[in-house]
């Protein structure tokens, strides 16, 4: 009975989130802090006090005390709570909800949300009390009938973002050392935005270096040189490794058959996908599941 009530609560939470594009809530335990939602659609800001390990992209952070965490919807992360006591607040918001703000471009593309940026900040006790008040205001405001409450909530989100930006070292604001780094960062962000694949009817659109170059209005040779110079890997290698990583996730965590996965990842025939997967991973797609579902 408790499991069904929890499932209904999660379903209600997700439906409300999709409808309004925003939700703020208090965190009183780990399960509440890591609610299920479509990470591809929503940014997340958490203010938490406790001890935890945050795995963000390819990095892990061991955090103690109060932290402020910013999650980009296109960067995978997971959260392990270590301490028994874990409290705080969180808010989720879509880009469409935030768009009416004139400064959407600058804030959502700040170092807080960028791939390779700084998503986690230690917060003092004095600052924690101040930020707690902002989150409490968001929670209260979302339930009112005030005609301009969305504008007010966006102002609260902006205030939290600016408080974090003030903690960001000034030299880190311009992380672009040269044109090659800038192009590479943009390419990697665009690559990550293609995932996760959430439906068999929405196949991967960008699959080659030329696809990405065209999307970024660059010559493919220029993109390849920049990416190779900055990362030591070719553009094609980055794309192939990311597609293979997504393929593993789909094989392990969905009941899609191999043909469906191949189509979703942009392969015309399952044979092409099988050959690709074996070339990149050294193993057969079917080795990741006991039997075709």
Q: What is the strand content?
A: 15-25%
Structural class: alpha+beta
Corresponding CATH architecture of the largest domain: Sandwich
**Number of helical runs?**
12
Main sheet properties: 6 strands, antiparallel
Name the CATH class of the largest domain: Mainly Beta
Q: What name does CATH use for the topology of the largest domain?
A: Jelly Rolls
Relative helix content? 40-55%
Tally of DSSP β-strands: 6
Taking pLDDT < 50 over at least 5 consecutive residues as the criterion, the unreliable ranges are 2-10, 30-38, 170-176
- Please give the radius of gyration in angstroms: 21 Å
Q: How many structural domains does the protein architecture include?
A: 2
First-last Cα distance: 29 Å
Estimate the mean pLDDT confidence.
Answer: 81
H/E series, N to C? HEHEEEEHHEHHHHHHHH
Shape: globular
Pfam families: HTH_18
Organism: Chryseolinea serpens
Domain HTH araC/xylS-type: 181-291
Protein name: Helix-turn-helix domain-containing protein
């Amino acid at each position: 009975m408790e499991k069904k009530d929890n499932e209904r609560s999660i379903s209600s939470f997700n439906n409300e989130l999709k409808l309004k594009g925003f939700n703020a809530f208090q965190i009183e335990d780990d399960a509440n802090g890591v609610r299920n939602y479509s990470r591809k659609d929503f940014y997340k800001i958490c203010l938490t006090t406790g001890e935890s390990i945050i795995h963000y992209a390819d990095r892990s952070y061991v955090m103690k005390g109060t932290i402020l965490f910013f999650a980009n919807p296109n960067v995978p992360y997971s959260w392990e709570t270590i301490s028994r006591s874990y409290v705080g607040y969180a808010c989720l918001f879509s880009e469409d909800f935030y768009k009416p703000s004139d400064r959407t471009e600058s804030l959502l593309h700040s170092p807080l949300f960028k791939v390779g940026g700084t998503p986690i900040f230690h917060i003092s006790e004095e600052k924690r009390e101040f930020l707690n008040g902002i989150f409490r205001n968001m929670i209260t405001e979302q339930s009112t009938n005030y005609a301009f409450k969305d504008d007010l909530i966006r102002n609260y989100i902006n205030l939290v973002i600016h408080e974090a930006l003030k903690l960001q070292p000034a030299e880190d604001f311009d992380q672009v050392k040269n044109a090659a780094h800038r192009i590479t960062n943009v390419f990697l962000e665009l690559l990550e935005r293609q995932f996760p694949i959430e439906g068999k009817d929405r196949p991967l659109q960008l699959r080659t270096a030329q696809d990405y170059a065209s999307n970024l209005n660059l010559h493919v040779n220029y993109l390849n040189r920049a990416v190779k110079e900055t990362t030591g890997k070719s553009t094609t290698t980055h794309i192939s490794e990311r597609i293979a990583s997504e393929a593993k996730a789909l094989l392990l965590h969905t009941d899609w058959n191999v043909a469906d996965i191949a189509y979703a990842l942009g392969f015309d025939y399952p044979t092409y996908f099988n050959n690709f997967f074996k070339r990149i991973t050294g193993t057969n797609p079917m080795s990741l599941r006991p039997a075709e579902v």
